[in-house]
Design brief:
By secondary structure, the chain is mainly alpha-helical. Among the domains are: 2-163, no CATH class; 591-665. Helices cover 76% and strands 1% of the residues. It has a two-stranded antiparallel sheet with strand order 1-2. β1 and β2 form a beta hairpin. α7 (162-183) runs antiparallel to α19, α21 (480-495) packs antiparallel against α22 (500-517) and α23 (522-533) runs antiparallel to α26 (570-580). The chain starts with a helix and ends with a helix.
């Protein structure tokens, strides 16, 4: 019975999100509060307060929490005009419901994410209330319960602030897009395509892991989901080929983490950055493409170096699928991705693009009919789905002017009708299951952004962000590199307890202004912080993606974490390139772009050689020292030192190549 109730609420949740994304966006506070209401109800139904409680007590507590959730959401929805009329002259009901809302978010955070983020939110609440008792520069006048509770509950500067706003609009619809794409069997298609492209080269399964993770991660935006999806296929084959268990797990974790920085979706990151900076989403995607490719290039180099060191070969061609066959059988999985990119390029709003993408996934999946059926039925099936796709594309072109209610219902009804065809691979039942999966997948992100809203609200109220930025500036002595190292260390500490989205939000509101004050452009500062926040997936002692991969590989979790940390060094190196070699983000003229991209590639090759101790052949300590020197100089700003560094690396690589040839003879 509970499963049926959860499914029903999930379907209503999806219907609400699709309606507001495709036809009628709501006022911010209404959209965000209703979204959070659905999330909290689903969470309290699916994650018990404590397994140590007897069932009757669990259901009593969770029932009360669900009732409280409905009250705080209903109060805003039915009384908001009156609340705004008396803004600042709060009634006791406003204050106490604000306290309840904060407590609900804290309890949801504990269940969905764990204690670290909950304790951080509690610390910021304590900081706001006990401000006069904090030392030195962090002291402030303090805020009473009334001001704090109403600020966090009844404005868009707290729980219902920008982070939750992004989750309630763009992020949810793209999570749903990824869940539906996975339900259609796209995961197997991307894995098969990766094996067809790279499986025959040395260390083929590991390289296929890198490629398939780039494909899947760019759509799912979840490192852990990427690990369990692609790793189930790639990790056993890597082990069979000769990679140690911790190496196989590390490769998969590092590659899967890259999915969160790979356009077009980039998890929740691109949407949050767009909202914080005011830079169009499409521009952020453009800026991120080359850095993301460089990251996967780095992981690929590590994989190739290990394969060369161990004398590995690829899989026999007879054991690999053919590219032509894979594309012939799965070309329809690429249609939604192309449609997504097309409308983003056309500057259609991200919410509308997500809505179009979700419908395109269902229609594209069912465009390829199942075997069998009478010729007439098959012809009717293809004609219907082509007609619906054409109608979807037509409505998409009109979406900037808004679509009519008739068009909206025609699209929804026509898409659902496509699942009723006996030849449709994605049946109505499978679609319903995928919608539930997508709704549940949104819970951690939405809860994290609601908790982050508490932090953001307190920072805005107390001004601690400016104080923290001042400390970073003071500690760095005005040196950008030192400030970047301090931000990286802060991200490492935050990443031990926070998911990527929460880590990015907390860090960027505290340290982002410091980077901007040091001359780092705003958009680059946000991208740097977002990249550094990814290290929570691969950095011990808390490396969630690596730990998930270690379970599939049968490896020691800590060893897998350190391997993933090594293979994911691009998370630290490429943000430095963003700052010192901005041409990799297409900033500057053609010469600057070509120069910075070339130097960036040379630097990444150098650091892989330093860390792995192998490029074409084993590297003695003196050669690794030269590569390290050259790589460091490439990151040096001005004075032509970058060219000297590039020359040192290239000369060293030529020496390694020539001596390697003489040794092989």
């Amino acid at each position: 019975m509970i499963a049926r109730i959860v499914a029903l609420i999930a379907w209503l949740f999806v219907a609400f999100q699709i309606y507001t994304a495709g036809y009628a966006p709501m006022t911010a506070i209404f959209q965000r509060s209703i979204h959070l209401g659905f999330v909290l109800v689903l969470l309290f139904l699916t994650v018990p307060v404590s397994k140590r409680f007897p069932p009757w007590l669990r259901w009593l507590v969770d029932g009360l929490l669900i009732a409280a959730t409905l009250v705080i959401v209903g109060y805003i929805y039915t009384n908001y005009d009156q609340i705004m009329d008396r803004f600042g002259w709060w009634e006791p009901t406003d204050v106490w419901l604000g306290v309840v809302a904060v407590l609900l978010v804290l309890e949801a955070t504990r269940r969905a994410i764990g204690w670290p983020m909950t304790l951080i939110a509690l610390f910021f609440l304590a900081y706001a209330y006990f401000g006069p008792y904090f030392p030195g520069v962090f002291s402030h006048k303090g805020y009473e319960l009334e001001r704090l509770a109403t600020q966090l509950y009844l404005t868009t500067e707290g729980i219902f602030g920008l982070p939750l706003g992004v989750a309630a609009t763009f992020v949810f619809i793209f999570i749903l897009f990824g869940a539906l794409l996975e339900a259609t069997g796209a995961g197997k298609f991307f894995i098969d395509l990766a094996y067809a492209l790279a499986g025959q080269s040395r260390g083929g399964p590991a390289k296929a892991s890198v490629i398939s993770s780039a494909f899947m991660g760019s759509l799912s935006g979840s490192a852990i989901a990427n690990v369990v999806t692609t790793g189930a296929f790639t990790i056993p084959l890597m082990r069979k080929l000769g990679y140690r268990p911790e190496e196989a797990a590390g490769v998969e974790a590092a590659a899967s983490t890259g999915g969160q920085i790979m356009p077009p979706i980039m998890g929740a990151g691109a949407f949050l950055i767009a909202e914080y900076t005011g830079v169009p989403y499409l521009e952020i995607v453009k800026l991120s493409v080359i850095p993301a490719i460089l990251y996967f290039f780095t992981v690929y180099l590590f994989v190739d170096a290990i394969a060369a060191k161990r004398g590995m070969t690829g899989l026999p061609r007879s054991q690999l699928p053919k590219v032509s066959k894979v594309l012939a059988e799965g070309w329809h999985y690429l249609l939604p991705l192309f449609i997504l990119i097309y409308y983003l390029v056309k500057n259609v709003s991200a919410m509308k693009v997500g809505f179009i993408g979700v419908l395109a996934v269902v229609l594209s999946a069912n465009l390829r009919a199942k075997p069998g059926g009478a010729p007439g039925l098959r012809a009717l099936h293809y004609a219907y789905h082509l007609l619906m796709l054409g109608f979807l594309l037509y409505v998409g072109m009109q979406s900037r002017q808004g679509i009519s209610l008739t068009q909206f219902y025609a699209l929804i009804g026509g898409t659902l009708l496509s699942t009723l065809s006996p030849l449709s691979p994605l049946s109505l039942f499978r679609l319903a299951e995928a919608l539930v999966v997508g709704a549940k997948a949104a819970i951690p992100v939405s809860v994290a952004t609601a908790a982050a809203g508490i932090v953001v609200g307190v920072v805005g109220l107390t001004g601690v962000g400016l104080k923290f930025s001042g400390l970073v500036l003071s500690a760095s002595g005005g040196i950008t590199l030192v400030a970047l190292i301090l931000v990286a260390l802060a991200s490492l500490v935050l990443g031990m307890g926070l998911p990527v989205t929460a880590s990015y939000i907390v860090l960027v509101i505290l340290a982002g202004p410091a980077l901007a004050d040091l001359g780092v452009p705003l958009i680059i500062a946000h991208l740097v912080v977002f990249w550094l926040s990814q290290d929570s997936n691969v950095t011990p002692p808390v490396a969630l993606a690596a730990y998930a991969a270690s379970g599939l590989a049968g490896a020691d979790p800590m060893k897998a974490g350190f391997m993933a940390w090594k293979f994911a060094k691009g998370l630290y190196l490429i943000p430095l390139l963003m700052v010192y070699r901005p041409g990799i983000m297409l900033q500057g003229g053609a010469f600057t772009v070509a120069k910075d991209l070339t130097l960036g590639l040379i630097a990444l090759v150098a650091f892989v050689g330093v860390l792995e101790g192998f490029l074409l052949r084993p590297l003695p300590l003196a050669v690794r020292a030269l590569l390290l020197l050259g790589g460091v100089l490439i990151f040096s700003p001005g004075l032509g030192l970058e060219f000297l560094g590039g020359a040192i690396v290239v000369a060293t690589l030529v020496y390694v190549w020539l001596t390697g040839r003489s040794v092989s003879r």
